[in-house]
Structure formats: C-alpha cells, structure tokens
Write a structure and sequence with these properties.
single chain, 44% helix, Rossmann fold, 281 residues, four-stranded parallel beta sheet, alpha/beta
Length: 281
C-alpha cells in the first residue's frame, strides 16, 4: 500500500478542512495517511516556512485560504514542487455565489466567529450534560429533544453529538421496575424520540461494559429473557405515546443523530416553523 502525505493548509483553525479530509478518506479501505496540519496560515511569510516540509514530504495538498496573495503563493510553490493542490471549498462557494447572486466574503476564519450560533451551541452542551441519565426532569420542557431508551442504547453519546450540533437534549433510561416521571408524558416543546436496539446486541454491549468494569457478567442485567422484556417494555411505551423510534442496532452515533435531526426538521415544517439548518462544529 502506498503511503500518502496529506498536507492540510488553513487560514483558520482547520476544523472544517479536517472534517472534509476525514469524510473523504472514509471512502477508502484503511489508507496509510500521514497528516501534516498547518493551521492559521495568513501570510506569505508563514506559508514560506512550511514549504521545506512540503518538499521533504511530497503528497496531496488540501487548502482553505481566502486571501488571494496567499493562495497564489501556495499554488506557485506546489507547481514548482509538482504537488497537486486542491482548494476544497471553491466549488461549493462558487455555486453559492451563483445561486445567491452575491460574492463570498474573503475573510479568514469567518466560519468560526463567536456568533450567536456558537453561544447557542455552548448553552446546548451545558444543558445536555446537566440533563443526562434522567437528571433534571423538572425543566425538560426547555429541551429540544428528549431521548428515551433502555440502558446502553446509546442515549448519552447521541445526546452529546446532538448538543454539539446546537440541540438541547435530555435523556432518560427506561427501567421496568422504575417508571419514568409523569412529566415525560406531558412534554409539548421537545420532540421525544425512543431509541431501541436488538436484544442480542444489547446483551453483548452490556457484557462488554461489565467486563470493562471488572464485574461479573452473570447478572439479570445481561440475562437474555430479561433484556428482551426490557426492550419490549420500551417499545410498548414508545407506541402508546406515539413517539418516533430510532433503531440504533446497525447505526453509528452520527447516523442516529442525523435521523433524529431529520425528525426535528420535519416536525418544524409540519408546525410551520422555519427549517434552519444547524451549523457545523
């Protein structure tokens, strides 16, 4: 397998560039990639300082540089070194300019300004952490989403991922012997979503969890019939209350979150609310 040197050159934090590169690399089978990360490149002098590394480690150069002089300088160096250089946002930006009828602002790091959306995301993360595992049910009405499901059905990681997308999320474990608070069934603002998974998969996850804690695995927590009864109990509750259900058995956290976001957006459209796309991290 060939080893690829991947140079990521950004005039900001480089988060957007890293996400794009990661998404593209996911389409390949275990590529051997050496990342060379160059954030906050905002001058020709700074750019010149990284050229020796480009020469010593030839490979693919991906960049997000809005300053015309800096871009031209990088492209000139890459031509001289015989390296491919790809401006990853140019195609999208050009298409948006055409459709919106205006030119993009060439401001480095504009997408990372600490604007209102940033502070809303911070608030969402704080809320979500404070309302994990059934805590704080008194103010669940403030949530955007409430996730319900049996133990180890990915409620917490899904909640945190959604919070990073700007959604306030509370989650509650459903336990047969301990009914949830009545406030769960009276919520109006948040969308309540049930998370479920195949019982056999749930048993496996719980066994691994107990092993990681150096605890015995012969308990009712991993008993097949008990787990099946738990999942049936949860499904009946979801159906009785008309809550949408996401089966997380074969879904990644990102896939589950995307499905939940679609449900939220569809609900907003049905209620005549604006369908605002959450900003990326």
């Amino acid at each position: 397998m060939n080893r690829l040197n991947l140079h990521l050159v950004s005039d900001s934090t480089g988060e957007t560039l890293e996400m794009i590169a990661k998404a593209a690399l996911a389409q390949f089978d275990d590529p051997e990639v050496a990342r060379h990360f160059w954030p906050m490149v905002r001058s020709k002098q700074h750019l010149d300082r990284i050229v020796p590394d480009l020469a010593d480690n030839p490979g693919l150069v991906l960049f997000t540089l809005v300053n015309a002089d800096t871009r031209a300088r990088l492209e000139e160096h890459c031509r001289h070194l015989g390296l491919p250089a790809v401006p990853v946002l140019d195609g999208v930006t050009a298409a948006l300019e055409s459709q919106l009828g205006q030119e993009a602002h060439g401001r480095p790091g504009r997408q990372h300004l600490m604007d209102e959306e940033y502070f809303k995301r911070v608030e969402a993360i704080q809320y979500t952490i404070a309302h994990d595992d059934g805590v704080g049910h008194e103010d669940w009405e403030e949530a955007d989403i409430v996730l319900a499901g049996v133990s180890r059905s990915s409620k917490t990681p899904t909640s945190i991922y959604l919070a990073n997308r700007g959604y306030k999320v509370a989650n509650i474990p459903l336990v047969v012997e301990s009914p949830p608070p009545g406030s769960l069934f009276r919520l109006r603002h948040p969308l309540v979503v049930g998370l479920t998974t195949a019982p056999e998969r749930l048993v496996q996850i719980r066994r691994n969890r107990l092993l990681s804690l150096n605890e015995g695995t012969e308990t009712s927590y991993v008993d097949s019939e008990k787990v099946k009864s738990e999942t049936q109990f949860a499904r009946r509750m979801f159906a009785d209350n008309g809550w949408p259900v996401i089966d997380v058995t074969r879904r990644s956290i990102e896939e589950s979150a995307a499905a939940i976001i679609r449900l939220v957006q569809e609900r907003k459209r049905q209620n005549g609310q604006p369908d605002l796309m959450s900003k990326p991290i």
